[in-house]
Amino acid sequence: MCPVTGFFLVTRGRGGPMLCHLCASTITLCILWITMAQVSGQEDKEKTTALKDLLSRIDLDELMKKDEPPFTFPKTLEEFEYAFDEDGQLRHIKTGERFVFNAREDLHRWNQKRYEALGEIITQYVYKLLEEKCKLRKEVIPVDASDGEPTSFIYMSSDALTNPSKLLILIQGSGVVRAGQWARRLIINQDLNSGTQIPFIERAMEGSASSEEHVLYVWDYFVSKALAKNVFIVAHSYGGLSFVELMNQREIQVKNKVCAVALTDSSHNIWLQDTSKGTQDWMHQCCQNWVSSPEPLDTPLDSMLPDCPRFSAGTERHELTSWISFKSIFKFFSEALKAKEDEEQEENSNTVTTRSSSHKNKHQDL
To answer: Which spans does this entry mark as compositional bias, Basic residues (predicted)?
Structure first.
């Protein structure tokens, strides 16, 4: 039985296939149906091609713009009708509500541009806090930039290069974050403490660029000239990669000046960055990495690479790892400093004992 037309195929004698009388009319109908289907399919194909051609002529972006308000936004927090309250949370001046991203429904691009405009205001606001609250000064780099040469800048305390005791270096990650920030989204949606580096700066006072080249430049022109015997570093996300690259380029200098390094959800990779065995061993002794994890804060985690010990930051949110592990980081710094001071004291004691014995022997000889 033919699976297409439904007729029987019969063989008689030596001749070829023979159709029964009923099937003769059926095959005619079948051929007609196939022809009609082909015509219908051709029409659908032509309609589809025409529709695609029509859509190709339509600029969807331009079509969306017709219903969008202009991308003109306030230039200050006050004009945005937002302010930071006493807890460092961004609140609407009139309603007291947190920042609302979807200020206008079905206008995602406009809402995104509004968010970015607010983010730039936040950046300037944080710069102002660094200068007025933290008393940091802005240093333009390169220090010998010529007219028209692209420049960047860092913030540093007045005694950063002259303090003989300690120096803290903060290195943020990549993206839209700028000096003084860990995560812009946290500043806007949570608070200043979790999203900025200010708590780290204030804590350091009590007791920068995101690229590897920038960190290296800052080390060569600023940190390496500082008088501090004990340098501490906190590096978040891509900042951890930048620090490892600094180790690769200035291994001996870093080992001589840096006391301890706290990484938070660092994106470094000692294999891909071709890190030496000496650097890996030093990182294992002097570095700790607090990573995003559902485990409680400070829970030891398996190290995927033979570099620095890994601990849970007590949160699964990447951008929160620095803030949640804040106390643990400074506890780690304090313990590292004490261990170093104890070691130096022991060495000095051994030196004095050795000298005393030497003088005693000489006296006996005389």
So the answer is: 357-366
